[in-house]
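Folding follows sequence. Below is one example:
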Amino acid sequence: LLIIADSVFILILVFHLLGVRLSNRQAQKNPEAKAEGLGPLEGALLGLLSLLLSFTFSMSANRYDTRRASIVKEANAIGTAVLRTNLYPDSIHKEFRKDLQQYLETRIDYYLSGTDETKINEALKKAEAISTRVWERAAQFSHNSENFIISNQMIPALNDMIDAVTSRDAALKAHVPYSILWLLIILTLLGSFIIGYSKKQKKNDWIILTIYALMTVITIYTIIDLDSSRSGIIKTDSTHEKMIELRNLFTEH
């Protein structure tokens, strides 16, 4: 992300200088063709850039909120399943809690795997194996009509817990399309070029130019950072604490 931000910052300055140089050459060849102030093209391009910035930021922010909500939803589903194991007799209750404790650890490992695809896939496979074992035990126990009420409480909770894995993994892989990000960067560079080409002053105002480049780069950096769920500065660590707090359910007496 830092490499992308630095590159865009430098390119904004370069494209601005290219616009200034091309404008000066055009002025020497044909002084009447010199761009004056904010023309319709410059206003339309910068307006389109502003619209795309706000639209892309909204997309990445929504995806970030979705990832946070999926973590909370899964934590609630696991917690509900753990509490409902108390409905079973002690022998079955202990087996359920043992499996669910292992399941919780695999889901915590899933988050702590970061960007390591091997560890992520390994955590997903372990979680699937454990959830299958828990589901089969609950299904087998439900065959007895005497356990009708208990099964009606436990099976929906397990179903929500298993479905939460798919929802969370889908939210993790949902990103702003790369084509939109490239379009955003291209429009940023073209906007810098147009500003340089149409400016009136002969000398470059480096303070204003640097502030413009810095503000644009910070916005693009924030968009990409929000969209990167496992890397960057903005993460969901505080939300994931809800998953870690579930360990207390297995330590309380």
Notes: The chain is about 80% helix and 0% strand. The chain has a mean pLDDT of 86. The longest helix spans residues 40-84. Residues 60 and 184 are 13 Å apart (CA to CA).
